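[job 0412] stage=complex_fold ligand=zinc ion status=START
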Amino acid sequence: MGLVNSMHDPALLFISTDLGVVIRDKYPKARHHFLVLPKSDIPSIYHVKRKDLSLLYELHLLAVNVIEILGMKTDDFKIGFHALPSMQRLHLHVISTDFISSCLKTKKHWNSFNTELFLDYEYVRNEIEVNGSLRRIDKQKASELSAKELKCNQCNHVASNMPNLKSHLLVHSKR
Ligand code: AMP
Ligand code: ZN
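[job 0412] stage=complex_fold status=DONE, emitting structure tokens
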């Protein structure tokens, strides 16, 4: 019940509306990393049906609100779902593309946000609109993506390991 408890944690709570809640990710993988969750008990994106698309739309609006509140640009963020979520309760990630964070440690972390293991909101919404729900990713494909080379998200650089990738990311940092 980690995320559901965190929805009530004042230290993490960022926005609350009738339908959804935005919390800070407890282990942020970038300078700005939030989760948008519905108040209704939907376990995961794989449980979202066509009838839930208006709720999904509301969650996405909350994600955009977060970026506005920060005074930042949507182009500097990724908004979407993990194809293999580890935590229960549907949650939409809102994450800045710097990926500068001490919590970003493993190749699995990197590839979960920077390969097809990360499903953009627009892709997911379209899949549910067209097919009625989101199809699960093939297990073999998921493990291949998870083990993929460490390619920078901002240039063509391929890093040999996580420490190298993390120092490379600083090259792109505006700060
Ligand atoms: P996912 O892999 O999509 O299930 O992502 C779960 C996210 O929840 C990760 O980014 C974690 O850092 C974050 N997380 C894990 N436990 C908590 C918690 N108790 N409160 C807030 N965020 C959490
Ligand atoms: Zn780069």
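The chain has one domain: 2-173.
[job 0412] exit 0
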